[in-house]
Structure formats: C-alpha cells, structure tokens
Amino acid sequence: MIKVVYGPKGFGKTKIIKDDINAAAKSAKGNVVFITDKKIYTVDIDLNVKCVYAEEYDVASVVGFTGFVQGLLAGNNDIEYVFIDGLKRITGEENLSAYEEFFSNIAKIANANGITVELTVSAAKDELPKFVLDYIG
C-alpha cells in the first residue's frame, strides 16, 4: 500500500510523517525504515527506526531512487513500513509526471509483500497527477 502526504512547502508534511513513523515504530512487528535527505529530520524519530540518508547513496534521479528503494525492499524481507520524506528533494525531479513508473513499481512490490509505503510530496492537490491521487489517504 502507498499513502501520499501532500501539501505546499511549509504545510507540515514532515511533522505528519514523523508522527506516523513513531506510531508505526510502536506497533510494527517488522522493521520500519525512514528515507530522507536531511539528517536534521531524524532527531525526533524513534531509535528503533532505521534512518537512511539518500544523499549518502547518490540516488539523485527518479530511476536511481526507484532502484534504490526496490533494492532496499528486496534485501530485507522484514521491512513492514517505509517512509520517504521529500521525494522531489531526494531525486531532484520537480515534474510529478516523471514519477508514474516509480509509483507503479513500488506499489506492486508493497502490495505483493504487505508493506506500507508513506511518502511526502510538495504540491497542492490540484497539481497532483491522477496516478498520485489514487494513493491519497
């Protein structure tokens, strides 16, 4: 399952996802992973959550990030939740239409393996492509 937290810059998406991460850490039977580009965001995160800093892996494209997330999921069958904060910041791609294959591939893996993926997208609802609207929770 994929869930998208959206809103313009300054809306509070990071706070929402951090609250969801900490709630998942308390209830998860498997591993919880948080992918972000900013180490400062991990200060308030439960210590049981694996924090991954995308910039350390040089995944600055949509294709590269798709493969990165797929590899992460393939390499650990115990992952139950993946949280991604700042999708556009991580990949450097501002055009949301470029993410259709990313959403399709990650949704396929998540659904097949019972993984919940929650991510933030900096955009107003009327700016979201149809394929993203399908994942609004």
Describe the structure.
Helix 2 runs parallel beside helix 4. The mean pLDDT is 94. The protein starts with a strand and ends with a helix. By secondary structure, the protein is an alpha/beta fold. It has one domain: P-loop containing nucleotide triphosphate hydrolases (Rossmann fold), CATH 3.40.50.300.
In a few lines, what is going on in this structure?
The chain has 137 residues and is an alpha/beta fold.
Topology:
Layout: E1 2-7, H1 13-27, E2 31-36, E3 50-53, H2 62-74, E4 79-84, H3 87-91, H4 100-113, E5 116-122, H5 130-133
Parallel strand pairs: 1-5, 2-3, 2-4, 4-5
CATH topology: Rossmann fold
Low-confidence runs of at least 5 consecutive residues: none
Walk across the major sheet and give the strand order.
Answer: 1-5-4-2-3
Give the fraction of residues assigned to helices. 25-40%
> Would you identify the CATH H-level superfamily?
P-loop containing nucleotide triphosphate hydrolases
Report the CATH C-level class: Alpha Beta
Question: Largest beta sheet, briefly?
Answer: 5 strands, parallel
Averaged pLDDT, please? 94
Number of E-state strands = 5
- Following the backbone from N to C, one meets helices and strands in this order, namely EHEEHEHHEH
- How would you sum up the global shape? globular
Tell me what portion of residues adopts beta-strand conformation: 15-25%
The CATH architecture term is 3-Layer(aba) Sandwich
Total separate domains: 1
Tell me the Rg in angstroms.
14 Å
The SS-based structural class is alpha/beta
Instruction: State the end-to-end CA separation.
Output: 10 Å
